[in-house]
Amino acid sequence: MTARSPLHVPGTRPPQEPLGGVIPFRGVLGEVVAELGQRIVGGEWGPGEAIPREADLSAELGVSRSILREAFRILGAKGLIRSRTSDGTRVLPRAEWRLLDPDVMDWRIRAGDTRDLLLELLRVRAVLEPGVVREATLACPPEARARIRAAWEAKVAVYEREDPDLAERRRRFIETDLEFHRAFLAAVESPLLGQLFNVIEAALTLLFDLQMRARGYETEMIGKEDGHRHHAEVIVAWEAGDARGAEEAMRRLIARAMEDAVAGLAKVGLR
Fold this sequence. Notes:
This protein has helices at about 25-40, 55-60, 65-75, 100-110, 115-140, 140-160, 165-185, 190-215, 225-240, 245-265, and strands spanning about 80-85, 90. Strands 1-2 form a two-stranded antiparallel ribbon. The model is unreliable at about 1-20 (pLDDT under 50). The chain is mostly helical.
């Protein structure tokens, strides 16, 4: 089977590794699942359209029909296709896809659907995170409070340290930003929300990178004061026990992130 080159965001490095959380189906089966998954989410076969017959795909990909059937089973579990004896194998509407499945998100990025995916993730954050911060302000166990403070201190350290290694500083900037949001999620003690953040976290890393590009961080840490100020407003309100203030501060932070993400996407040619 001839593997296709992964597509990627113009102006960024091609993804060499799948997003975190991707299930590592090994060997030929893994290659077939990834190949067909990317082609489906990339629109080679539209919703309701039948994909080629087993015999034809088997010949095209150079794999046995038993491997192809197992790949269909996996793709069916992800909501991408449905196989029926009388109707063949057809692509399901996007509304039925398991959109938070790490494989599906990874294939969307590799198939060039990066802009829509990242903006969808931002909308999820805009809906969820202000409420998370409000709940974490109203009730926060001591261990969670310590974690939030430690996450903020780590962000401050990256902000204040003039590290000449820009690549390392960018990496630490993103990592401390993620931990800041993880800490608030942990405070509400919701395993479901925690798992949701874990699923989308790798895609958020790409999103943060685009936001940083929009602000000029690829050459120097321009504009970091603005982002730092928005995070500081969240912490100040949280420490004061001002649930509504913390919620509104997080709402402003996410709104700023959305503006930066749109600008970053446009900067790399994705409008």
